Structures are given as C-alpha cells and as structure tokens.
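User: Some background: our group keeps a shared notebook of sequences we're curious about, and every so often someone picks one and asks for a predicted structure to add to the entry. Today it's my turn. The entry only has the sequence so far, pasted here. Could you supply the structure so I can complete it?
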Amino acid sequence: MARGDVPQDSYHLVGVSFFVLGLGTLLPWNFFITAIPYFQGRLAGPNSTLLTLGANHTGPADTFNFNNWVTLLSQLPLLLFTLLNSFLYQCIPEVVRVLGSLLVILLLFALTAALVKVDMTPRPFFSVTMASVWFINSFCAVLQGSLFGQLGTMPSTYSSLFLSGQGLAGIFAALAMLMSMASGVDAQTSALGYFITPCVGIFASIVCYLSLPYMELARYYLARKPSLAQGRELETKAELLQADEKNGIPSSPQRAALTLELDPEKEPELEPEEPQKPGKPSVFIVFRKIWLTALCLVLVFTVTLSVFPAITAMVTSSTSPGKWSQFFNPICCFLLFNIMDCLGRSLTSYFLWPDQDSRLLPLLVCLRVLFIPLFMLCHVPQRSRLPTLFPQDAYFITFMMVFAVSNGYLVSLTMCLAPRQVLPHEREVAGALMTFFLALGLSCGASLSFLFKALL
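Assistant: Of course. Here's the predicted structure to add to the notebook entry:
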C-alpha cells in the first residue's frame, strides 16, 4: 500500500483510544497514593471516623507505615517485571497480556471500592490492601510494557497521545480527590465515588482496546508482521522513555514525536544494507558510556520516592482547622506535585541543559538530596525526634514546587541525554539499561522511605 493510501483516523478515535490507554496505565498508582489519608483513617482503628478524604490522621495508623509500604509495593513489581519482560512477552500473547491485565486491575479496584462499605479491623484491612497494591501494580507493569510494544508499530502521533494520557494521570487523580471532598456528601459515599472513578477509567481502557481492531487505521498498523513489532519493543520503550518517562510518568510528547517515526515503506530499502550493520552491541560497553547518566537517574528517583509520598503526605497545614486545612494536602502535595512535574518535563522540549559532557548534571542531581531534610523539618505532627523548623505552609509549598519541577526536568533530561551518548545501533541497549535503572531508583527510594520515616 502506498504512503498516500494510509487510512484516516476518523473522528480521531484511534488517538482518543491510545490517550485513554495511557491514562489507564498510571491511574492505579496515582489513585492509591492520593487516597493515603483515607487508608490512614481506616487503619486508625474501629473507633475512629471511617474516613475523611484529605484529612491527615495521627496515632495508631502510623504503626502500619502505610505510606511507605504502598510506595514500596507499587515500585517493586516494576523492577521485577522489567527483568521478566522478555520471558513474559515470548510466552503470553499480547491480547492476553493487555486484556488480562486490564480485567484484573478492574476487579481489584472494584474490590477496593467495595471495601469502603465493609467494616474490617485494621490488620486484615491492611493485608488485603497491600495485596491489592502488589497485584494491581504487577499487572500495570505488564500492561505498560505490552502497550509500549504495540506503539512500536504506530506513527509517532499516537505515541505522543499515549504519553499525554500518562502525564495527566496524577492530575486526574488529584482532581478526583478534590471533587469527592467538595461534593458535600457523607464521608463513606465520598470515598466510594472516588474509588469508582478509576474503575470507570479502566473500563473505558478495556473498551478502547477492544475497539482498536474495528478501526481501519489501527488495523493497518497493528496487522504488521509480529517479528517487527517484537524487534521494535525495547527500541520503542527507549524512545518513549527518552521522551520523558515518569515511574514511570511521561509528559512531554513533543520530543517523542521527533524520535518515534517508523516508516513501513522504507523497510524493504534497508534490507540490502543489513549485512553492513554493526554487530550486536555489548551491554558492558554501552553501560560504560552511560553509567554516569544512569546513576543520575537512579539518584533522582531515589530522592523523590524516599519522601514522596511517604513523608510529604504527612505534612499538614499549620493554620487552624478549616477548609484550607482539609484541602491542604490534596492540593499542595499531590496536585501541585503533578502539575509542576509536568511543567519540568515539558521544559526539555525547548532546551537541554546541561549537556551530556557537562559535570554540572551530577551536581544538580546531588543537590536534590537537600529536599529530604527540608521536608522532614516541615510541619509533620507525627514526630518524636526531629524539630519542626519550617512550620508555615509557604515553606512546604515552595519546597514542593522546586522539588517537583526539578524531578520532572532531571528525569526527562537524563532520558534524553542517554541515547546521545551511544552510537545509533546501541540505543536499544541503552534504553533497556535506562529502563532498569529507572525501576531501580524507584525501588531504592521506596525502601529508604522507611528509614526517613523512622528518623522523624
């Protein structure tokens, strides 16, 4: 089929479908961490108020270290399935991986919503919730990896839309929390509505995925030979991550559009030159070229996940109880972080500074370690060791803005610089290595959060 005979995306339905699928891959993580106050309220004991969305709870709930465990059990599956992806993708068909993952995530979120109406003692509730977090994020890791592979056969426009959906997941969760709190209904109904929202989002993702084979444009690209799609999977993931991965959470689609274009009509012309291509790149040689950039990526995510949300979700407003005090954490912790993080990632679409040869990048990354004591010294009522040096709300808001912008920018910058430090035929390996170090940084940060919580 000639280039001009490529089907049109009628009513932009294919684009909308991939946007919703991108949103669906990161909804679970964001909805769980944004609802930390709800879970703390449930874990405070049978005599406590069932839940007040957005309110910070003190006391017995801290004995479960919920913030820390939900972060750790959300990130470990990403690290595990990063290592198991190649094995899983060879053994399990794509449609089973995608639809199976979406259905399991939907069922587990429905269980989470149903538990709002179930009276349970704290320990069984904690155990059930942690099991749900582990399995939901495990299937999210499989889902995201499978969709990355499918995007390898699509034009860059749809990769950009997928990335945009992922980038908005955190903002969507924070706004859902605020709407639930402002609805004026009782606390139990508010929480039920909040957890039904991602169920609707995951169901919409299932509908979008099932509808793709019925769209002419999607059939045209997705029907391409499987060997090509499999061969492009890691390369596609590398380029998507290069375009601003966040936790995997990307939000700068413009750069993805520059790197992901795959012209199916040019494949036959490349075949005669195939014997002249360089041999399989060495992982060790590629690592030697990008080790400093990879280490910077690990440190950025280690710092971020060590305090967000484990420590930052504990910060409360220093003002007297009222509306602002109730809305402080959802707005200043989760909504502000996601907005400023997206802003930081979008900056790499306009400039890349410092460049790959500069030693300023490791310095900037190391300076972010200062955010750990800064947040620990903010207004956290549940403390027994450290003093409160920054009680005013303005301190926390300022720290959060710089923290989030620097996280987004430095993550995006390292992902963009890594492919520039290797030869073109080594980029696939570089992308795979950066994916592993991204997951490693998330897991290290989640593990360190236990230590910093204990030091408070």
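Suggested note for the entry: The two ends are 64 Å apart (CA to CA). Residues 47-51, 57-61, 225-235, 241-276 have pLDDT under 50 and may be disordered.
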